[in-house]
Design a protein that fits this description.
The protein is of the alpha+beta class and 676 residues long. It is built from 25 helices and 26 strands. Helix 12 runs antiparallel to helix 16 and helix 16 crosses helix 17. It binds zinc ion. The site of zinc ion (ZN) has 9 residues, from helix 12.
């Protein structure tokens, strides 16, 4: 085949599969097969640089720039008026009906994704440039960053000259992944998806944007009427056909009743979406009616946003409790119980003493409490105008609430105040360290209450004492049967076979979380004694380990206070046995992937689940935004109905069967067994 023809074919295939994966969430080939296509194309382009075109799928990530140019929008990007109740919407529609002298239904309801608005200019079937909303008239040209968004097509079939409008956002699952990495690296986590998106889209280096997994969902065409579309819903259908990612939940509504139902339905489902929304946008569907209604100087008259109630409430700050943590004391606010996001909240985070001082939060203040998604409630700000003079300044504690010894107050390298209990025999600190150890190394049946009990009865004085607990010691505790004692001892014995990475993260070294621990364990080839010999020069050679992290590891290893623990662990830890090792080395194709298995397959379900685990995957029993694949057994046909299936479709999680799993592992299924 001619090289030019093969290159064209590869580009066509890659575009098709990118669309299947990023837009439709229904991949037809494995990641590996996709990578092979990409590698072949990159190879051919390297040999024939004259054949590289800017719209080639290999050209998504460009060079870094020093600043952004601005661009004037051909059609202004207006903001949308907000409303906060169904009554507001009814009033708005009645006002429009009066102005138009005719009925205004149907309307289109869409999700209002909480990201950064963008305008994407296409001409001659190619993405020309992309801009942020800016002040509505003029925005920043962010073409290079937007090109890295793989759900945004670089080429489309239509040759219309148009500005496609959409919302750039970061998936929630991506925020989790990035924050895990950041906290492992000792960096401040990103606050929320919106901030992360705004920061990423303004990054001067497209390589940064490419790593952050941005997405785009489009919601319209600026020149729809001029281009001959009659209805907004028709432009949405057109955009979907052109390969753009749209929010599937949009709906054409014919009545107030339908709008209300849509708002309620989305409110119930919004936590399950892999993106944040802050409301619903309602638009008049008929474009000539839209044109007739026109705009004010700020916003179009034909659209309104319904904002979901903020999960915020006011309450009184009653007292501050200082909790002993593994390394620091943290303030927790006790407030008058208040209804928030469907639950009663009586405690909220105050973050740290610096925040308390900065926001000037005082005891007795009326404060705003916010509960954002699954994050624990926190105090946003005090209402200074509601003070009566009886409020008191919050002082940091001088003595440890656990051991009553004086606390050490210092500043870390970022000049943040640190309040620590340095008493080596402090029971509060000890409890936190033991609980951390137990959760990281996964000792079963060992809860925080048992830890408290053991410390109180002086059965343990250090983390290492956990390792040698006997049945007798445990059975002597209150409310502890012999069977439970037996289970706990077995749990401790089993934990000795955990991989090295879990042991390292269980040590509780500052800045060393699960991600860093994995890297260290691989570097030292699963040898604890090799790790104990680590030097700073060694450690910084490991990809992704910074000096700060290396420093805290060395500090921990050198500190004489830790030597009895380290020696005890050397004697106790056995590492994975040969069967486990064989399993670990079977392959890692599925590492980090989470599967849910359901339906009848050509082999027992258990066998499928074992295969997934053998290759590093996780098996969970319910579908969530973190699920990578739902595996429905091949014996089920399309009419198979289950909650897992409908949830997977809703969350756009790819659905596969056991044969597809075999293909992912480059294996076959023969006589009901995986072979290859
Ligand atoms: Zn203490």
């Amino acid at each position: 085949m001619q090289i030019t023809a093969r290159i064209e074919e590869l580009r066509r295939l890659i575009r098709h599969h990118e669309r299947c994966y990023f837009v439709l969430a229904a991949p037809e080939i494995s990641d590996r097969e996709f990578d092979l296509l990409m590698a072949e194309l990159q190879d051919l382009e390297r040999q024939h640089p004259e054949l590289i075109t800017p719209d080639s799928p290999t050209q998504r990530v460009g060079e870094a720039v020093s600043s952004f140019n601005t661009v004037k929008h051909r059609v202004p990007m207006m903001s949308i008026e907000n409303s906060y109740s169904i009554a507001d919407i009814v009033e708005w529609l009645q006002r429009l009906e009066k102005a138009a002298g005719t009925g205004v239904f149907p309307v289109v309801c869409e999700l209002k994704i909480d990201g950064v608005s963008g305008s994407f200019c296409y001409r001659d079937g190619r993405l020309q440039n992309c801009a942020t909303r800016g002040n509505g008239t003029e925005g920043d040209l962010i073409t290079e960053n937007a090109r890295t968004i793989r759900s945004l097509p670089l080429t489309i079939e239509s040759d219309l000259d148009m500005d496609v409008r959409g919302e750039i956002y970061t998936p929630k699952s991506m925020l989790d992944v990035l924050n895990q990495q950041r906290s492992a690296d000792g960096e401040e986590p990103f606050k929320n998806c919106r901030n992360l998106t705004a920061g990423t889209i303004k990054s001067l280096d497209p390589a940064v944007a490419a790593q952050r997994g941005l997405q785009v969902m489009v919601y319209g065409i600026a020149q729809a009427t001029e281009l001959g579309f009659s209805h907004h819903s028709a432009t949405l259908e057109f955009l979907a056909k052109q390969g753009f990612k749209l929010n599937q939940a949009w709906k054409r509504c014919q009545s107030y009743q339908e709008i209300t139902e849509f708002i309620e339905e989305i409110a119930a489902r919004r936590d399950s979406f892999d993106f944040d929304i802050d409301g619903i946008v309602i638009k008049i569907d008929n474009l000539s009616l839209q044109a007739e209604l026109g705009s004010t100087n700020k916003a179009p008259r034909w659209a309104i946003a319904y904002k979901y109630p903020q999960e915020r409430a006011m309450s009184r700050l009653l007292r501050v409790e200082w909790q002993t943590g593994r390394s620091q004391l943290t303030p927790v606010a006790h407030i008058d119980p208040v209804e928030l996001g469907g639950t009663t909240v009586s405690r909220a985070s105050l973050h740290n003493i610096d925040q308390i001082r900065e926001k000037d939060i005082r005891l007795g203040d009326m404060v705003t409490v916010e509960k954002a998604g699954y994050i624990i409630p926190y105090i946003v700000a005090p209402a200074a105008d509601k003070r009566d003079g009886s409020e008191q300044t919050i002082e940091p504690p001088t003595h440890c609430p656990s051991c009553q010894q004086p606390l050490k107050i210092s500043r870390d390298e970022n000049s943040a105040t640190q309040i620590r209990c340095d008493n080596p025999s402090c029971q509060g600190v000890l409890a936190r360290r033991i609980i951390h150890f137990i959760t990281q190394i996964e000792i079963e049946n060992f809860g925080p209450q048992l830890v408290e009990q053991l410390i109180e009865k002086e059965q343990v004085q250090g983390v290492e004492d956990i390792l040698t607990l006997s049945r007798l010691q445990l059975a002597a505790l209150e409310r502890m049967g012999e069977k439970s004692a037996e289970k706990i001892v077995t749990g401790i014995e089993n934990a000795a076979h955990q991989p090295l990475a879990k042991l390292i993260s269980a040590l509780g070294i500052n800045n060393v979380g699960t991600v860093v621990s994995e890297k260290i364990a691989t570097w030292y080839r699963q040898s604890f004694s090799a790790f104990l010999e680590a030097t700073e020069t060694d450690l910084v050679q490991i990809d992704g380990i910074k000096e700060k992290v290396a420093g805290s590891i060395i500090e921990f290893l050198k500190n004489p206070d830790n030597h009895s623990l380290i020696n005890a662990l050397k004697a106790w830890w056995k590492g994975p046995d040969s069967a486990q090792l064989a399993q670990m080395s079977a392959g890692s194709q599925l590492t980090g992937k989470t599967f849910v298995v359901t339906g009848e397959a050509s082999m027992p379900r258990r066998q499928i689940e074992e295969q997934i685990k053998k290759y590093g995957g996780n098996v969970k029993s319910s579908v969530s935004p973190k699920t990578s694949y739902l595996l429905i057994g091949s014996q089920e046909n399309d009419s198979f109905v289950s909650n897992k299936k409908s949830r997977a479709i809703e969350l756009k999680i790819p659905i596969i069967d056991e044969f597809e799993l075999a293909r992912m592992l480059e294996m076959k299924i023969e006589n009901g067994k995986f072979t290859g």
